[in-house]
Amino acid sequence: MSAEKIAMVSRPLCGDLAKCKRCPALVQGRTQPVCWREPNSNPKVRIMVIGEGPGRDEDAEGKPFVGDCSDPLDALLEALRLSREDIYLTNAIKCFAPGWKSHTLEAQGEIETCRRTWLSQEIIAFTPQIIFTIGKTALKSVSVDTTDWPRKFVLKNLPWPLLLHFPHPSGRHPKNRKRYQNIANDPLIVQYRRLIDSLRNLS
User: Fold this and answer.
1) What three-state secondary structure class fits 176?
2) Domains, in order of start, for the chain
3) What's the pTM value of the predicted model, to 2 decimals?
4) What is the pLDDT of residues 100-113, one digit of tens each?
5) Residue-wise over 113-146: b if at least 16 C-beta within 10 A, else e?
6) By C-alpha distance, which of 43, 37, 80, 85 is closest to 61?
7) Alpha helix ranges (H) inside the chain
8) Is 10 exposed, middle or buried (0-12, 13-18, 19+ CB in 10 A)?
9) CB burial string 161-194: b at 16+ within 10 A, e below
10) How far out from the chain centre does Cα 122 lie?
């Protein structure tokens, strides 16, 4: 998919997302929904990276993976021999929530609402070959380990997306943060890198 075609998908979606008021608690705390507006490449491998939810910097700029979360993402991409220009960036949750806790949001239904309303649209439109989730909430948003039809629909009705996962750098377990310090040599990342290189060579 060319950058122009990706833009035709992402820009109208961002416009619709800006009007979303489905989750009153999140609407009150956000500056703006966070949406990827700047596709500028023609990647050989269509990779969608899904984070958990926007922080304060992302909320201020309206873009995913800026501010504090920027460096860990760039380190991850460099370890995979990728750049931001090679991927589609998004979040499981589109709006910033002060004191954000995934279990609280799940109880209130915001993760499910975002998945049904927005994330499924992005995945279907972009048709990724690889979905790469960062953090437990992002993984849950596209997990096939459920009988709920939207999740099965999101993954199983696409050509052949592979689901890859890596912990969030600010997770509760210190070992997850340490993995980012030498991420290029992490055994899982080495496997992912070989896989992506193989797909790139086949394109």
Assistant:
1) helix
2) 3-202 (3.40.470.10)
3) 0.84
4) 666 566 656 888 89
5) bbbbbbbbebbebbebbbbbbbbbbbbbbbbeee
6) 37
7) 3-18, 24-29, 56-61, 70-79, 102-108, 110-114, 120-126, 136-142, 149-156, 174-179, 187-202
8) buried
9) beebbbbbbeeeeeeeeebbeebeebeebeebbe
10) 10
* pLDDT tens for each residue of 7-60: 666 677 888 998 999 988 888 889 999 988 665 555 667 899 999 889 899 999
User: Tokens 């943060």, residue?
Assistant: 177
16 by Cβ neighbours in 10 Å (0-12 / 13-18 / 19+) ranks as: middle
Owner of token pair 């960036």: 89
Tokens (6 digits) for 19: 């009007």
